[in-house]
Structures are given as C-alpha cells and as structure tokens.
Amino acid sequence: MEKDNVCIDCYNQIDKVANILKLGQAELDVLTIPKRILTFSYPVRLDSGDLRYFTGYRVQFNDARGPTKGGIRFHPEVNLEEIKTLAFLMTLKCAVVNLPYGGAKGGVTIDPKRFSDYELERISRGYIRETYNFIGPNIDIPAPDVNTDAKIMAWMLDEYEKLEGRHTPAAITGKPIALLGSKARDFSTSMGGAYVLSEFAGTLNMKPSDTSVAVQGFGNVGMNIARILHEWGYKVIAVSDSKSGIYDSKGLDIKDVISHKDKTGKVEKFRGAKDISNEELLELKTDILVPAALEDQITKKNADKIKAKIVLEMANRPITPEADDILLGKKIVVIPDVLANAGGVVVSYFEWVQNSQNYYWSEKVVLERLKTYMTDAVREMSKVCADFKCDIRTALYINAVKKILEAEKLRGNLK
Ligand code: NAD
Q: pTM here?
C-alpha cells in the first residue's frame, strides 16, 4: 500500500490500543491512512475586485460504518496533517457514540477575521463547488467547526442545492433552524457533555449541590455547559474567557455572568467575584474541571498542579499525552473528548435523520434521544474498562477501533 498519506499522529494515538489488540499491518494501515484526501486551490473575487487563491482540504478517513461526517474549519493554521488527524478522531468519535457514520474533516487555510461577510460567502460557496463531487448525504456530510457557523452552513447548503438542482438538506448539518436545522443543535455539545458528566457523578456519589465546577472558555461550549450545570444545581465556582477568569467559592450565578459578558464583552470584573488568570482557574481546588477553550491547556508543566477529581474534556485535545499520563497517575478521572464533546455530532446525526425523513422533532424529543446515545456510550465504555482493565481513553479507543475493524472485515476489506 502507498504509505505517503500515512497520518503519523494517528499512529501515536492508537499505539497503546494497537499493542493491546495486537493489530497487524493491514489493520494499522486502515487506521492510519485516510481513505480519500482532496487538496485544492481555488480563486475567489475579493470586494476590491482582486482575485485571491485559497487552499482547501477535505479528508474522508474511513467510511466502513457509513458515510463520513465532520466539520469544516476556517483557520490560518489549517494544514493537511491537522485535517487528517481530526478526520481520524471523528471516525473514532462516531463509533464511540454508535452513529452510522465514518469520519471526515475539512478546512480552508484562512484568517476569516480579515474578510468581509460577502467575501466569506464566496469562499464558502467556492469550497462547495470544489468538493461537490466528493460530498453528499450518502457520501460525506460537512458541518460547522472552528470559525464556521450556521450562517456559513446556509451558504454552503444553498450552493450544494444549486449544483444538485434540487433540495438536499441532508447534505450539510448545523444549519439554521429556518433552513431545516435541528432543534437544540446549538447547545447539543454542552448538553451531551453534561449528560456524560452526570453519569460519572452518579457512580461517584457526587450530589450536584455539593459539587464545585470550574469551566475554562466561555464560548458556545463553555458558556452553555456552565449554564446547564448551574441550572442542574451544580456550584459553578469559576469561568474564564481568553482575557481572564472569575472565581467565587460560593458559586456564580451563570445567567448574570452571561448578561455581564453580553454587556461588557468579557467575564472579568463580575460583581462579587475575584478576577483570576486562566492558569489559576485550571489549578483551582474544584471537584470538576471543564476545559472548553483550546487544545494543549493541561501539559506536563501544570498537570501536577491540577486538583480536580474529574476533568471533562469539552475542548478537543485540551490535555497533552504526557499530561494525560500524569493525571492518570494522580487518579484523576479524565473523561476524554471523543466521548465528552460527541453530543454535537449526535445531534448533527439527528438533523440528517430529520432531513432524510422530512419529519421534524421537538426539542424535548431531541434531548431525550441525545441522552440515550450519550449514556449508552458511557455504559459501553465502562464495560470495556472492566474487560480490559484499562483507563477510560484506552477503553474508548479500543471500543471504536474494534467497531471500525469489524465493519471492514465484514466488507471483506480485512482478513
Ligand atoms: P468558541 O470560539 O465559541 O469559544 C472558545 C472560548 O474559549 C471563548 O470564550 C474564548 O474567549 C475562549 N478562549 C480562547 N482562548 C483562550 C485561552 N487562551 N484561555 C481561556 N479561554 C480562551 O468555541 P467553541 O465552539 O465553544 O469550542 C470550544 C472547544 O470545544 C474547541 O476545542 C472546539 O474544537 C471544541 N468543540 C466544539 C464543538 C461545538 O459544537 N462548538 C464540538 C466539539 C468540540
């Protein structure tokens, strides 16, 4: 097999699992070499009248379990290696929560803040024209990711439907509700994480009113999970955004913090709370720590100072592998991203199902079904932990890898 496309980072991530499951070379190839890679360059007319070329990617990592699924990100650091790794993680995530999907990811190397809305619209439409023959409701279904949102999905869907010549809402998820998006999609990642957390808290006999929570990041994911946990009676003692954090040992009123952030653009200087740095927030004495901002926040430099009992990885890859081992040694329960933040893709799947059936569900039904998917995934993971006597991340990876390889074997693609 051609090895040029191998994803080195994927090797590193499944190393432990490959040893435990004694995977052979063909199995390793399936798990580390994407099925399809598209790299393209396309011109877009800027508002000034100039033409500018953009580089885009779409990687479909594995489709043995169903059409591939994954977001499109707009970021200046987007590159093929990163997109390959993220597509691999989507493959695992969809298998962890039992969605009938494989994994994909896409992106454009661009700093979106430097372009007007009209330019972003042309960049988004151009991305769809370049990938049109590569995507579709039964092939590969894009969704929002970093710096892309429901508005961009609406432009992308419109372009897709113009090329297709018919309505095809299931081609893209994360759409606005008025364009057949799903109810609850906007806070589904956070709600999924909250359901997972309450399963863990239940087994550890942690009562919400006696349980303190610190949340790093106050964007879509961080703000919504802080709000949900506050509404469920947890004591949210600290939150932060990119500028700084706030702390109150008695618990913050998150609704008021949201109004304060809406008014001032930041969480700092919230009445009655103490301003703290992001570093201090991570090292607080708290029962639950929720990194919900960026990758690489807990590293070998600060892992030893983490005092939380549970770390819920709502951001993608907020803990480096070295730090993960340190937390494991400290007996801190880490709930990994492939499970903790999978609620978004579960509700994206529900959106695709609703679009395919042209039958739309209430928010109540969406949330009930989300809860079932998330809690089933936790129970499956617990069984693998017990069977293999391993940590949670390893159990999730073992479970996902086994499902992917089984599908490949049944298709006759592996012995
Ligand atoms: P967002 O852009 O809405 O919010 C990010 C938040 O992080 C903002 O409050 C920002 O101020 C804060 N932040 C930025 N730099 C920071 C720093 N150095 N220290 C502390 N806070 C900082 O993004 P989001 O959609 O909430 O995504 C957050 C994370 O969750 C990302 O890792 C993303 O990949 C992951 N995630 C998001 C979804 C989703 O549905 N939105 C799904 C899965 C995973």
A: 0.96
